[in-house]
Design a protein that fits this description.
The protein is mostly helical. Helix content is 80%, strand content 0%.
Length: 250
């Protein structure tokens, strides 16, 4: 029944059903039984969905404590607990607390998975975002690069995750005032995005406008060639045309 409520996005009802099931389990199982850990985890995940992060952390930590007692320390359920706790901290902006949880996950994943497994790529991306938020830009870029290498080996090169990584790397370089590197990453990401969008799609104009702004910033630097300035105008004009096309009433 809890699954039905969850699929209907009735999260409060889902928690109620899980809590009733949990009470029944506690009456017949030991407090350190693996099923108890699963119940804590399930309730924690619902709290995450509800953005009730403190409650989610409490449930996931209880689940993790039991799992560490019972399971091998390289078990993937332990990874899931670490990542759930990390996500809850990250969502609250508590990046110092999220980072240790994120760091523990790949240590286990690398023991279990092939180094090119997509889950490892996603974990490196999350690690990079945490480092980026903490201002550790060099480390963030290194982790983004590891994530990109992994994901390029298993995903289509026009996959949305690849676009996101290029843009995240561009933002990191921009924070270091490394404008050439930032521009290169923006171009790679946006060119993939533009290749899969219809020219009348609203995002097409937005992306072209962002590219134009980046080129415009570059054109203000005296040692750059007029090519940069011309690229700004090219993207700006395409953006304007696309915006006008979207304003036409059919």
């Amino acid at each position: 029944m809890a699954v039905v409520y969850f699929r209907q996005n009735k999260h409060e009802d889902t928690i109620t059903m899980l809590a009733e099931s949990f009470k029944f389990k506690l009456a017949i199982l030991s407090n350190n039984h693996l099923d108890i850990a699963v119940s804590y985890c399930n309730i924690g995940c619902i709290y995450l969905t509800e953005s009730k992060y403190e409650e989610a952390i409490s449930m996931c930590e209880k689940s993790l404590k039991i799992r560490l007692l019972i399971l091998d320390h390289d078990h993937l359920d332990i990874v899931n607990s670490y990542l759930s706790i990390a996500f809850a901290y990250h969502a609250q902006g508590k990046h110092e607390d999220a980072l240790p949880m994120y760091k523990k996950a790949p240590r286990i994943q690398l023991l279990v998975f092939d180094h090119n497994h997509p889950d490892i790529g996603l974990t490196f991306k999350n690690l990079a975002k945490a480092y980026h938020k903490l201002g550790k830009i060099e480390v963030a870029i290194f982790k983004y690069e590891k994530s990109l290498k992994t994901q390029l080996s298993v995903l289509d090169h026009n996959h949305p995750n690849i676009v996101t990584l290029y843009v995240n790397m561009a933002l990191a370089y921009q924070d270091q005032s490394k404008h050439e590197e930032a521009l290169s990453m923006y171009k790679k990401g946006f060119e993939i995005k533009l290749s899969v969008l219809d020219h009348n799609h609203p995002d097409f104009a937005v992306i072209r406008e962002i590219l134009a702004q980046v080129y415009h910033q570059q054109s203000k630097r005296p040692f750059l060639s007029t090519r940069i300035y011309l690229e700004f105008h090219r993207h700006f004009l395409i953006a304007i045309i696309s915006i006008l096309n979207n304003l036409i009433i059919i």
